[in-house]
Amino acid sequence: MSDRLPSDHDAVETHRASLERVGRTDRPKVVVPDDAAVPTDEVVRVVIDGRTCHARIETSLQGDTEITGAYDTPTLARDPGDGENRLQTWVSDADVTVGGSVLLDVVTEGFKYGLRAPGERTVYEATEQPSDSLSSIADELTE
Protein backbone atom coordinates (compact mmCIF):
# COMPACT_ATOMS: atom_id res chain seq x y z
CA MET A 1 0.00 0.00 0.00
CA SER A 2 1.43 3.39 -0.92
CA ASP A 3 1.49 6.35 1.40
CA ARG A 4 -0.93 9.18 0.83
CA LEU A 5 0.17 12.78 1.07
CA PRO A 6 -2.32 15.67 1.37
CA SER A 7 -1.59 18.87 -0.53
CA ASP A 8 -1.46 20.83 2.74
CA HIS A 9 1.23 18.58 4.25
CA ASP A 10 4.59 20.16 5.17
CA ALA A 11 6.35 17.84 2.70
CA VAL A 12 4.44 19.36 -0.24
CA GLU A 13 5.77 22.68 -1.49
CA THR A 14 3.03 24.77 -3.13
CA HIS A 15 3.52 27.60 -5.65
CA ARG A 16 0.97 29.93 -7.22
CA ALA A 17 1.30 29.68 -11.00
CA SER A 18 -0.39 31.66 -13.78
CA LEU A 19 -2.88 30.06 -16.14
CA GLU A 20 -2.50 31.68 -19.56
CA ARG A 21 -3.15 31.00 -23.24
CA VAL A 22 -0.63 29.53 -25.65
CA GLY A 23 -0.17 32.46 -28.04
CA ARG A 24 -3.47 33.45 -29.61
CA THR A 25 -4.97 29.98 -29.34
CA ASP A 26 -7.55 28.76 -26.86
CA ARG A 27 -5.09 26.18 -25.47
CA PRO A 28 -4.12 26.80 -21.84
CA LYS A 29 -0.64 26.73 -20.36
CA VAL A 30 0.63 26.93 -16.81
CA VAL A 31 3.43 29.45 -16.33
CA VAL A 32 5.57 28.10 -13.52
CA PRO A 33 6.96 30.69 -11.08
CA ASP A 34 10.73 31.17 -10.99
CA ASP A 35 11.04 29.93 -7.41
CA ALA A 36 9.49 26.51 -8.16
CA ALA A 37 12.00 23.66 -8.43
CA VAL A 38 11.01 22.09 -11.75
CA PRO A 39 13.28 20.52 -14.37
CA THR A 40 12.99 21.94 -17.88
CA ASP A 41 12.93 19.95 -21.10
CA GLU A 42 12.12 16.78 -19.19
CA VAL A 43 8.96 14.70 -18.88
CA VAL A 44 7.56 14.55 -15.35
CA ARG A 45 4.42 13.18 -13.73
CA VAL A 46 1.65 15.69 -13.12
CA VAL A 47 -1.43 14.80 -11.08
CA ILE A 48 -4.51 16.63 -12.30
CA ASP A 49 -7.87 16.02 -10.66
CA GLY A 50 -6.63 12.73 -9.18
CA ARG A 51 -5.28 11.44 -12.49
CA THR A 52 -1.55 10.93 -13.03
CA CYS A 53 -0.48 12.31 -16.38
CA HIS A 54 2.84 13.08 -18.02
CA ALA A 55 3.97 16.55 -19.03
CA ARG A 56 7.02 18.08 -20.60
CA ILE A 57 8.07 21.23 -18.80
CA GLU A 58 9.53 23.62 -21.35
CA THR A 59 11.09 27.05 -21.56
CA SER A 60 9.22 29.51 -23.79
CA LEU A 61 10.86 31.91 -26.22
CA GLN A 62 10.37 34.61 -23.58
CA GLY A 63 12.28 32.51 -21.03
CA ASP A 64 9.24 31.46 -18.97
CA THR A 65 9.01 27.92 -17.61
CA GLU A 66 5.68 26.44 -18.67
CA ILE A 67 3.50 23.37 -18.94
CA THR A 68 1.49 23.38 -22.16
CA GLY A 69 -0.06 19.95 -21.91
CA ALA A 70 -0.53 16.81 -19.85
CA TYR A 71 -0.92 13.42 -21.52
CA ASP A 72 -1.54 9.78 -20.67
CA THR A 73 1.97 8.52 -21.51
CA PRO A 74 5.52 9.90 -21.51
CA THR A 75 5.67 9.31 -25.27
CA LEU A 76 2.62 11.50 -25.87
CA ALA A 77 4.10 14.17 -23.60
CA ARG A 78 7.19 14.28 -25.83
CA ASP A 79 5.20 14.19 -29.07
CA PRO A 80 1.50 14.93 -28.44
CA GLY A 81 0.21 14.14 -31.92
CA ASP A 82 -3.39 13.02 -31.47
CA GLY A 83 -3.15 12.50 -27.71
CA GLU A 84 -5.79 14.07 -25.49
CA ASN A 85 -4.46 17.09 -23.60
CA ARG A 86 -5.67 16.44 -20.04
CA LEU A 87 -4.60 19.96 -19.00
CA GLN A 88 -7.03 21.45 -21.50
CA THR A 89 -9.81 19.12 -20.33
CA TRP A 90 -9.15 20.03 -16.68
CA VAL A 91 -9.24 23.78 -17.40
CA SER A 92 -12.59 23.31 -19.17
CA ASP A 93 -14.08 21.33 -16.28
CA ALA A 94 -12.45 22.82 -13.16
CA ASP A 95 -13.10 26.05 -11.31
CA VAL A 96 -10.12 27.82 -12.93
CA THR A 97 -9.95 30.49 -15.60
CA VAL A 98 -7.35 31.55 -18.11
CA GLY A 99 -5.84 34.76 -16.79
CA GLY A 100 -6.16 33.53 -13.22
CA SER A 101 -3.95 31.31 -11.14
CA VAL A 102 -3.61 27.65 -10.21
CA LEU A 103 -1.63 25.93 -7.51
CA LEU A 104 1.41 23.85 -8.45
CA ASP A 105 2.39 21.30 -5.80
CA VAL A 106 5.89 19.83 -5.71
CA VAL A 107 5.16 16.28 -4.53
CA THR A 108 8.54 14.73 -5.42
CA GLU A 109 11.02 17.32 -6.70
CA GLY A 110 12.11 16.63 -10.27
CA PHE A 111 9.62 13.81 -10.70
CA LYS A 112 6.02 14.37 -9.54
CA TYR A 113 3.90 17.52 -9.37
CA GLY A 114 0.24 18.34 -8.88
CA LEU A 115 -2.07 21.00 -10.27
CA ARG A 116 -5.16 22.17 -8.45
CA ALA A 117 -7.54 25.09 -8.23
CA PRO A 118 -6.84 27.69 -5.51
CA GLY A 119 -8.62 26.72 -2.29
CA GLU A 120 -8.91 23.10 -3.34
CA ARG A 121 -7.30 20.35 -1.26
CA THR A 122 -6.22 17.03 -2.71
CA VAL A 123 -4.38 13.92 -1.64
CA TYR A 124 -1.47 12.50 -3.65
CA GLU A 125 -0.01 9.02 -3.65
CA ALA A 126 3.53 9.45 -2.39
CA THR A 127 5.97 7.91 -4.82
CA GLU A 128 9.71 7.99 -4.85
CA GLN A 129 11.66 9.04 -7.88
CA PRO A 130 13.17 5.98 -9.58
CA SER A 131 16.93 5.78 -9.78
CA ASP A 132 18.54 7.19 -12.91
CA SER A 133 19.31 3.74 -14.28
CA LEU A 134 15.72 2.54 -13.83
CA SER A 135 14.39 5.78 -15.24
CA SER A 136 16.51 5.53 -18.37
CA ILE A 137 15.44 1.91 -18.92
CA ALA A 138 11.78 2.91 -18.60
CA ASP A 139 12.28 5.80 -21.04
CA GLU A 140 13.83 3.43 -23.57
CA LEU A 141 10.91 1.02 -23.23
CA THR A 142 8.29 3.72 -23.80
CA GLU A 143 9.94 5.06 -26.96
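^ that was protein a. below is b, sequence first then the C-alpha coordinates
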Amino acid sequence: MSAGAAEADLSGDELEALELIRETGGIHQSDFWKELDISSRKGSRIAEKLADLGLIEREETVYDGHNTYHLEPAPRDLDFSLLMAGDMLSPFIGEEEVNHNSDAFSQWLMNLAYEE
Protein backbone atom coordinates (compact mmCIF):
# COMPACT_ATOMS: atom_id res chain seq x y z
CA MET A 1 0.00 0.00 0.00
CA SER A 2 1.40 3.40 -0.93
CA ALA A 3 1.91 6.11 1.68
CA GLY A 4 -0.83 8.21 0.09
CA ALA A 5 -3.32 5.34 0.24
CA ALA A 6 -2.36 4.58 3.84
CA GLU A 7 -2.83 8.22 4.83
CA ALA A 8 -6.28 8.33 3.22
CA ASP A 9 -7.52 5.70 5.69
CA LEU A 10 -6.28 7.50 8.84
CA SER A 11 -8.61 9.03 11.42
CA GLY A 12 -8.40 12.71 12.35
CA ASP A 13 -6.29 11.96 15.45
CA GLU A 14 -3.95 9.77 13.43
CA LEU A 15 -3.50 12.43 10.75
CA GLU A 16 -2.80 15.05 13.43
CA ALA A 17 -0.25 12.72 15.00
CA LEU A 18 1.48 12.07 11.68
CA GLU A 19 1.63 15.79 10.97
CA LEU A 20 3.19 16.43 14.40
CA ILE A 21 5.89 13.83 13.76
CA ARG A 22 6.61 15.27 10.31
CA GLU A 23 6.69 18.88 11.55
CA THR A 24 9.06 18.11 14.42
CA GLY A 25 11.24 15.79 12.36
CA GLY A 26 11.08 13.35 15.27
CA ILE A 27 9.67 13.28 18.78
CA HIS A 28 9.86 11.02 21.80
CA GLN A 29 6.66 9.08 22.34
CA SER A 30 6.50 10.32 25.95
CA ASP A 31 6.20 13.89 24.60
CA PHE A 32 4.14 12.86 21.58
CA TRP A 33 0.94 11.99 23.41
CA LYS A 34 1.27 15.04 25.68
CA GLU A 35 1.55 17.34 22.64
CA LEU A 36 -1.58 15.76 21.17
CA ASP A 37 -3.40 15.98 24.53
CA ILE A 38 -4.36 12.30 24.46
CA SER A 39 -3.73 9.39 26.85
CA SER A 40 -0.44 7.51 26.68
CA ARG A 41 -2.41 4.37 25.77
CA LYS A 42 -4.07 6.06 22.79
CA GLY A 43 -0.75 7.64 21.81
CA SER A 44 0.93 4.22 21.83
CA ARG A 45 -1.78 2.72 19.67
CA ILE A 46 -1.57 5.57 17.17
CA ALA A 47 2.23 5.32 17.02
CA GLU A 48 2.04 1.54 16.51
CA LYS A 49 -0.48 1.92 13.69
CA LEU A 50 1.57 4.61 11.93
CA ALA A 51 4.67 2.42 12.23
CA ASP A 52 2.81 -0.68 10.96
CA LEU A 53 1.66 1.33 7.92
CA GLY A 54 5.25 2.40 7.25
CA LEU A 55 4.48 6.11 7.74
CA ILE A 56 6.87 6.52 10.68
CA GLU A 57 9.85 4.76 12.18
CA ARG A 58 9.62 3.84 15.86
CA GLU A 59 12.84 3.05 17.71
CA GLU A 60 13.30 2.09 21.36
CA THR A 61 15.31 4.61 23.38
CA VAL A 62 15.85 5.99 26.87
CA TYR A 63 14.69 9.58 27.42
CA ASP A 64 14.81 11.42 30.76
CA GLY A 65 15.73 8.12 32.42
CA HIS A 66 12.68 6.26 31.08
CA ASN A 67 12.24 3.70 28.33
CA THR A 68 10.26 5.15 25.45
CA TYR A 69 10.29 5.28 21.68
CA HIS A 70 11.60 7.90 19.31
CA LEU A 71 9.17 8.52 16.47
CA GLU A 72 10.49 9.81 13.15
CA PRO A 73 8.83 10.32 9.77
CA ALA A 74 9.60 7.50 7.37
CA PRO A 75 11.55 8.50 4.28
CA ARG A 76 9.23 9.14 1.37
CA ASP A 77 9.72 8.03 -2.19
CA LEU A 78 9.88 11.16 -4.28
CA ASP A 79 8.87 11.29 -7.93
CA PHE A 80 11.55 13.38 -9.62
CA SER A 81 10.11 12.60 -13.04
CA LEU A 82 7.81 15.58 -12.52
CA LEU A 83 10.88 17.81 -12.82
CA MET A 84 12.04 16.26 -16.06
CA ALA A 85 11.22 16.95 -19.68
CA GLY A 86 12.93 14.24 -21.67
CA ASP A 87 16.47 14.23 -20.31
CA MET A 88 16.35 17.89 -19.25
CA LEU A 89 15.94 18.93 -15.62
CA SER A 90 13.58 21.84 -14.99
CA PRO A 91 15.33 25.21 -15.25
CA PHE A 92 13.46 26.23 -12.08
CA ILE A 93 15.66 24.01 -9.91
CA GLY A 94 18.11 26.04 -7.85
CA GLU A 95 17.12 29.38 -9.33
CA GLU A 96 15.82 32.21 -7.18
CA GLU A 97 14.50 34.13 -10.15
CA VAL A 98 13.24 32.35 -13.23
CA ASN A 99 13.35 34.10 -16.56
CA HIS A 100 10.29 32.87 -18.42
CA ASN A 101 11.75 34.23 -21.65
CA SER A 102 15.02 32.30 -21.37
CA ASP A 103 16.05 29.78 -24.02
CA ALA A 104 16.51 27.08 -21.34
CA PHE A 105 12.93 27.49 -20.15
CA SER A 106 11.55 27.51 -23.69
CA GLN A 107 13.47 24.39 -24.63
CA TRP A 108 12.35 22.61 -21.46
CA LEU A 109 8.70 23.46 -22.25
CA MET A 110 9.09 22.19 -25.82
CA ASN A 111 10.50 18.90 -24.51
CA LEU A 112 7.45 18.60 -22.25
CA ALA A 113 5.11 19.21 -25.17
CA TYR A 114 6.84 16.64 -27.40
CA GLU A 115 6.75 13.95 -24.67
CA GLU A 116 2.98 13.83 -24.79
